[in-house]
Design brief:
Length: 220
Amino acid sequence: MTRTGTRATEEQRAAFRHLSSLGDSLAPWVRSTGPIDAYEMHVPVDVRSALEWFAFAIVSRQLSRATAVAIYNRLVAQLGGSVTAARVIATDERTMRGIGLSYPKARAIRGLAERAAEGLLEPGKLETVSDAELRRELVAVPGIGASSAHRFMMLYLRRPDIFPAGDLTVRAAVTALDRLDDRITPTAAEQRAELWRPYRSYATSYLWGYMWETHPSRHR
């Protein structure tokens, strides 16, 4: 969570004003934190396209950062310096597996590349398609779940009203702030987040920050 303070953009200030003015349990944390950059990605590799963003997200699942970076860099090198739909499709599975990708990860990257070749990740489309429609199209790709779709829309596309209701850290933060006995369910979290529209991406970032800074051992 990156605090922006006096450098805050108008959107960041508007999100801060809205979320800090509400009479709910998140508002005091928002007020104490100040305006933030909700879209800070902290990606340890250079991603120059939507497909590259997804490729690294897929590679990094359940791996340490160092291992993920090493495998992703091998993937980029194998593909001639960049991850493009045409280059992924032209690369056989054995080669993809040889750089350290598991079968499900290689399959997910190939499947997404095939959809990208059909126009799914075209910049023009990504700028105009609705949140709901894009999420439906992304999760229809084998290996792309709701969490990846939400993070892509929030962090790569920088959309201000995305809420990953199934995210464990988000749910843990809501549970802690609302002092619930049991971890809130994704359905209940989705309903809880209605109050934060139209800045649910910012609410998500504040929730992540709350857990990282006040419950560092529980933010997984």
